Amino acid sequence: MTWRAALLLGAGAATLPAWPAPFLGVAVMTGAVLLLVALDWALAAPLHALTATRTGDRAVRLGGTATVTLHLANASGRPLRAQVRDAWVPSAGARPDVPPERLVTVEPGGTANLPVRLTPARRGDRPAAALTVRSFGPLRLAFRQRTGRPAAPPWTLRVLPRFDSRRHLPEKLAKLRVIDGVQVTRGRGQGTEFDTLREYVVGDDVRSIDWRASARRSDVLVRTWRPERDRRLVCVLDTGRTSAVRVGDEPGLDTAIDAALLLTALASRAGDRVDLLAADSTVRAAVTGSGRPALLPRLVDALAPLQPALLETDFELIAGEVLRRERRRSLVVLFTALEAGPLGEGLLPVLPRLASRHRVVIAATHDPVLTGLTTTPPTGPDDAYAAAAAWRALAERDRVRVALSRYGVTVVDAPADRLAPAVADTYLRLKSLGQL
User: Fold this and answer.
1) 82 and 155 share a domain?
2) How many CA atoms lie within 13 A of 273 on its CB side?
3) pTM
4) Mean pLDDT for each 10-residue chunk of the chain (436 residues)?
5) 36 and 109: one domain?
């Protein structure tokens, strides 16, 4: 029964004093209202005759907007007058074009299209939660309501990670082309491979002359070299508790994912093979490098549902997985936090095994709040304690950095907005030096 039926009962009750027999008036009035309510309920479109389907976007980048349309078909012989609530999980940011309080009218055999705009606030899979339909009679005195009837069609929107560092890709590709050009004009060096033969010109290194080819051509030919391609790059994401620490407006894991995407795009353009491993106490995601066009979409799709786990990271597991998967010498870029406890107790004991076979780079996000606390003069006891804690945290980071450097590990410690280009520059520097 709706508020309209209640209002009708109230209006009838106001006329009771005018009846010669009040009890008879109550009976007649109540019976009339109940008859109208029952008739209105019977004329409401049955819910079993409704079918629901969805069409629309399956994926969207974090910060973007997707549209998913609910199609409600009325197969009954009565007009459907309904309020429809298409509920999604809160983090999906659902905004229906037709508000739930508005009435939707569907003629017999017709279909209503109800778009919902989704602006998700988090990465991962965002499913549709429930579908509720309230079918009214023509007088709107009564309704039929069911949640899940018609059955809510399953639909999941995958929210892909941001790729804000994409804006740095043209600059890094330009540096890569410079490195390729410089290396081709030099003689053979570490980390280079044979490129082509060309005629000798004054100033070329005589050690680059190919005497056999020169004899066949009756001309002096020299070999040119270029940086080795098909090198191995392994991006390792620490998804343990330290990745949940928020730096700015997002957790550290999101910053690491953004940096890994830029590094992957750059390395694949350079002709190198890129693998990805995400782990804490267990392996959360693993992507093996494939053809360049398909690698980045596969990587983005695998990283989308990744969330920080409130667990200590098992660096022995990570080192074992990298050594088992990568037999050839590779560049291993580990995205983690420069915290003395986890790295000192977990990573340093297994680092000699890992660094003996692979070139290791540690990429960590530097919290600018710590630097701000050490540079701002304290104005009271609380500020002094906070500054002392910041100095201690920075000193611990320096000790960890020194301990890692003893094993030949390169440490990239940068603010969140500079981590991705800093890691890409480190990759380019190592490639230009032939140290991959």
Assistant:
1) yes
2) 12
3) 0.78
4) 55 51 56 73 85 92 93 90 90 89 89 93 90 87 78 86 92 85 48 59 69 74 64 92 85 93 91 91 86 78 91 92 89 91 87 91 85 74 79 83 89 91 93 75
5) no
